[in-house]
TrEMBL record:
PANTHER family: OS03G0208600 PROTEIN, PENTATRICOPEPTIDE REPEAT-CONTAINING PROTEIN 1, MITOCHONDRIAL. It comes from Rhamnella rubrinervis. It comes from the Eukaryota. PPR repeats lie at residues 248-282, 283-317, 318-352, 353-387. One of its GO terms (molecular function) is mRNA binding. This is Pentatricopeptide repeat-containing protein. Belongs to the PPR family. P subfamily. InterPro entries: Mito_RNA-Proc/Resp, PPR_rpt, TPR-like_helical_dom_sf.
Length: 510
């Protein structure tokens, strides 16, 4: 079907999508307000508390160190420390000690954000017995901070290592934990299954439990969002209308996205027309899907025209829309057009993000183009856009492949100074390069920098550096590094059985 334009003027209201909101719960007493700081805690305070938690060898030493530090343990600071622990993969048991200590203070109530972060940390290490212990304690002290998002956080970790049946059993256990066990919790289960299992599993669970919960708009949008098969998505879309649930812009966008990913652009265009007929306005997400679909269909120029047309009808492209168009030209190896679009973004007041740069880094990585990668990295840093982990991995792997030690060390120093990227992932590649090139002094320095930031180098990297130090008779250095590694404690043995999921079931369902 030939088309010259896919856009029409915007003229009506569109509803905002549902979002979980964190609420700092608990009584509105003076003591509670005292612990909630209005201003953000200093970065130094967060780092100081993080290091205390990471280096503590016992509950007693943790409490003493926190008391002597003089740092005010507000809700905001605790949120940030737990987030720091989460992203640094620090010891979950030490994090739990910190969480329990701060929560046991008279008049203090944790936020929902702190609880969910703590549960994520425990779940990632498969410490499900302690997860249920914590939920059991919280439901007696302040059940209001156990939200549908809490359900999703816990179930997501369980679903990663357990069967669908065990995930659903854990979901049922929440009936005695969550203050309101309703459709929002059911939606959390479905979203978890869509993300961690398969759409087919989510569909089967939906059909088996839908008689206990009345599906709403969000239910169908969750189920529509992950389908790769147009037939399956169309089936849920039809069931949605049969149940009297009116599709919104999110619903239509999900179906259009399925069509675009399947390169069925005629169906995608027809659905855009259908949206206008029922006065549901296409938004920037609609057009971003169209742009991506046209790129997959080998029509990057037509996709670029969508950027121009949508502006004429009151819907302005955002960074994601430009990234979709840039991706099309990168796939087509038309980097001149891709750079032109990035310059256009800047001229329109939009700042390219790490995803934008990664589109180019990927091309340069596979073509072994060191100079262009390095120039782009310089441009990225000069504009104040910090690389993310993916950016760092494209660069460090290219540096290792081409044995560029100085560039690798420059990237690492920038990471240490600016605090971006994953120290753990990047350091493994960096230490490999430094050891291959015999740069033992540099490897030791980077090792100590990493430990100083509170990040534990991998055991593989430590052993490799240790072997080289032994060959160089650097016994004092070996002792120093061994002591640094010991600060992180022994590795946690994870349970071999998923029976821990039921350890606390009797208490939670009592």
């Amino acid at each position: 079907m030939a088309r010259t334009t896919i856009l029409k003027p915007l003229s009506s209201f569109q509803s905002a999508p549902f979002r979980f909101r964190y609420v700092s719960a608990g009584p509105s007493s003076f003591l509670f307000r005292l612990f909630c700081s209005e201003s953000s805690p200093p970065h130094d305070s967060v780092e100081s508390v993080f290091r205390i938690v990471s280096s503590s060898t016992s509950s007693k030493s943790l409490k003493q160190s926190l008391k002597s530090s003089g740092v005010f343990l507000s809700n905001d600071l605790i949120d940030k420390v737990l987030k720091r622990i989460r992203f640094s993969h620090a010891n979950p048991l030490q994090a739990l000690e910190f969480f329990n200590y701060t929560g046991n203070r008279k008049g203090f109530y944790h936020t929902a954000l702190s609880l969910d972060t703590m549960l994520y940390i425990l779940g990632r290490s498969r410490l499900f017995n302690k997860t249920w212990d914590l939920l059991d304690d919280i439901r007696y002290k302040d059940p209001s901070i156990i939200t549908p998002r809490t359900v999703m956080v816990v179930l997501a970790r369980i679903a990663k290592v357990c069967s669908v049946r065990q995930t659903v059993e854990s979901f049922r256990r929440f009936k005695k934990v969550v203050p309101e066990f309703d459709i929002s919790c059911f939606n959390a289960l479905l979203r978890t299954l869509c993300q961690e299992k398969s759409m087919r599993d989510a569909r089967n669970v939906y059909h088996s439990l839908k008689h206990k919960f009345r599906p709403n708009l969000q239910t169908f949008n969750i189920l529509l969002s992950g389908w790769k098969s147009p037939e399956e998505a169309e089936g849920f879309f039809e069931e949605m209308r049969e149940m009297g649930v009116k599709p919104d812009v999110v619903s239509y966008n999900c179906l259009i996205d399925v069509y675009c990913k399947g390169r069925e652009m005629d169906k995608a265009f027809k659905m855009v027309d259908k949206m206008r007929e029922v006065e549901v306005l296409p938004d920037v997400i609609t057009y971003t899907s169209i742009i991506g679909g046209l790129g997959l269909a080998g029509q990057p120029d037509k996709a670029r025209n969508v950027l121009k047309e949508m502006k004429e009808y009151g819907c302005y492209p955002d960074v994601a829309a430009y990234n979709a168009a840039i991706r099309n030209f990168c796939i087509a190896k038309r980097l001149g057009d891709a750079y032109s679009l990035m310059d256009e973004m800047v001229s329109k007041g939009l700042s390219p993000n790490a995803t934008t740069y990664n589109l180019f880094f990927r091309v340069f990585f596979w073509s072994n183009d060191l100079q262009k990668s390095w120039n782009l990295y310089g441009r990225m840093m000069n504009t104040g856009c910090l690389p993310n982990t993916q950016s760092c991995m494209f660069l460090i792997r290219l540096f290792k492949r081409l044995e560029k030690v100085e560039m690798a060390l420059q990237l690492w120093n920038d990471m240490v100074d600016k605090g971006f990227g994953s120290y753990i992932l990047v350091s493994d590649v960096l230490f490999d390069l430094l050891c291959d090139m015999g740069k033992l002094v540099e490897a030791e320095r980077c090792f100590l920098q990493m430990v100083g930031k509170g990040h534990k180098p991998s055991n593989v990297s430590f052993r490799r550096i240790k072997v080289l130090m032994e060959l160089a008779n650097k016994h004092e250095a070996i002792q120093n590094l061994s002591e640094k590694m010991a600060l992180f404690g022994t590795s946690i043995s994870l349970p071999d059985s998923v029976d821990v999921l039921t350890d606390k079931s009797s208490r939670l369902t009592a």
